[in-house]
## 1
Amino acid sequence: MNSGGIIIRLIDVAMIILFGFIAISDIKVRAQIKLPTDQQEERQQTEEKEPVVLFVKIELDQGYILEENEVVIAEINEAKELEEFLLQRYEQAKASGLDMVLLIEPDENSIIQKTVDVLDICERYKIPKNINYESMQF
């Protein structure tokens, strides 16, 4: 056998192995195609209301300071009071058709358990949350 015949056989074997892998692999196409819509629907999507952003600043001495639009709306010392306040604000936002997002800003000297308490409250009531890492200067 000459060297050309061996190369062709090796290519055949490689192709058989390749097709075998393709046959046993789980290939699923997951594409979402946006169909044309009315202009009215597009306007509704662009006119979505901005969510209510509520800042929870966790201080070492003062407990929890809640701000909205850079205005202090409450100062709370206990986690239970915070839970009641956040639930009330979340239900008010939902009733008026707005989403509420909680932005948590822990102080670098604050107790970590306070941050965990706020995260637990958000998980319990499915309140969207995020931690503002920019405010932390560790």
## 2
Amino acid sequence: MLFPVSALMLCGTFVSWNPSKETTEEKKESRSKPNILFLFADDQRADALGCAGNTYIRTPNIDKLAENGVRFINCYVMGGHHGAISAPSRAMLMSGKNLFHVYDRLDGVHTMPMHFAENGYETFGTGKWHNGAKSFEASFQKGENVFLGGMADHYQVPCQNMGPDRKLGERVKKGFSTDLFADAAIGYLDSYARGKREKPFFCYVAFTAPHDPRSPRKDYIGMYPDGSIPLPGNFKALHPFEFDDLNIRDETLAPWPRTPEIIQESLSDYYALISHLDRRIGDIIETLKKYGLFDNTIIVYAADNGLAIGSHGLLGKQNLYEHSTKVPLIISGPGIPKNEVRDALVYLYDIFPTLADLCSLPAPEDVDGKDFVSVIKGKEKEVRSSLYTVYRNTVRAVRTDEWKLIRYPQRNYTQLFNLKQDPLEIDNLAALPENKTKVDEMVALLKKWYTLTNDTATMNPKTILPLEYDYKKLRQIPDKLQPEYILKKYFKGVDIKNIKKSEH
């Protein structure tokens, strides 16, 4: 087994690499393998892209990736065991494991960048790492502008650089998040291109946009005038029933009931963050082209989870509706078909074994993810016929090509949607007598997934909680990371001076 130039920490033990043992044939094979550029957005809905049919948002560079590759329209994050969904989502992505086999902990876990490093790749990471410093240091050989945490004021991101000892240094607050991470990636590619290029690279760029605070860079504020973005087709002023903590941090970013005006304002800022992200992705891709690296680089564009922003009366990702669990996924590069769309049901954690296959690396061991290269290349239509999502111990969902069932065990409540006829999940068909057989069928499928994934939730609690709630008891409390722009715009009725800002 080959190891990276710098020592690789596996299971707490450093193993040194001896360059004299690498044969000439191995060096040639390593150089012929494609590079990987992994672009990861934060809290981006799958429909918030021009290539997804959204005619209101401008994302020309990401759209071009879709033209040059394959776009998946049914890619999902499995969910999370707490409200900060990005932590388990990123742990699943990096480990190839389902939620109940990794949760949000990567210490001691064999990760995707480790696997690529062991097989002859140079690894670099920048941006958000929501899974602890030790796992970043064990996973990457190089790193710049690394943000350890869940969210930050986009204008003041505490970043760390990795030293020659593969340790992250002191935190320094720097400029705008999207620029920090894009510039770090471009700087790495500059350095790589001017070097010997003896190894292919694995470059991971994890943006914190468009995660809130919904405060775009100043020159992007107003790019989408307030009121110009239409409301989601499933907009509601309030969620029709209580299923978990409806006062969780994400839901406090606008008052209740949600008004059309404030949701449209939120979408304007959200879209501006994405368009800025798209612009900087274009800069990264131009850097690949400048150095002749583009044609041999597989580019992945994805996001850690979706977001409600007014859909179903919600703002966040702490639910199992399509807008919050479905994410964008585009893969382009050598050997990838161009301008094609796949509707196969895939998880983010399927990407690890898939990239390993695309790069002719050994298949990673002990992973739950499925290699979907055959789907990318059009040889197969699916890798699974159904898909399971979870949120805390309060919500479970299962979907097939056509149907989706959401079960709330603590409320003894069920929703059934026909996604072909009702993709916005508006009409709950569960209570209709003619659908009893379908409900029973989907519940049985949910139970199979429950067992298969080693789920730990209690599906038959002794106490059933009410569906009704009083929205007037919900309180809008800003956290300490919301800048002045956000406080003035979205917390108009809150006494900012006398309120203690919550921790994230």
## 3
Amino acid sequence: MNKEQTKRLILGGFCLIGLLYVYFTFFLGPLNKSRNSIQAKIKELQDKVATSKAEISNASKLEETAHAATARYDSLRALSPDGAPIAWFPPRMKTFLAGQQIDKVTTRLESSNAFKEKELAAWNRYLWIIDLPQADFESLGKAIALLENSNPLLSIRKLRIYAAADDPEMQQIVFTAATIIDRK
């Protein structure tokens, strides 16, 4: 190898090193930067998509809950017939208790008031006094349990039981029932 060939070989080596430097710096470097930025954007978008999927899932659950609540609200509204409660509640109690073998029933309204909460503005609370001058304790217990379980808007507030002096098998019962009735 002579001096001329050595110069060409060294010059070729420098050109190769320069070419590799230009390739890695000007071609591969921007490609790597572009790839890294695109991957970061893809990860960010995937996170947004995952968050959106979670929000869509929550929205669908909320929609199902709202539908169920609306259906429950409509079914509760259907439990309140049209007309004044004083006209239909006492006969309903008399009929219900007669079905439980408790015949003599007197129902009177103690008080009624509106709810203060704006969500319940269309509903009123009524307190009824139901007097049973003669009832069997066992029949009454079953009747009260069935009454509360079959009427979701009714609850027994007070229960007073007096023993009858002339008939020990029968008791005199007075109870207070609270109802929530739609104003319609």
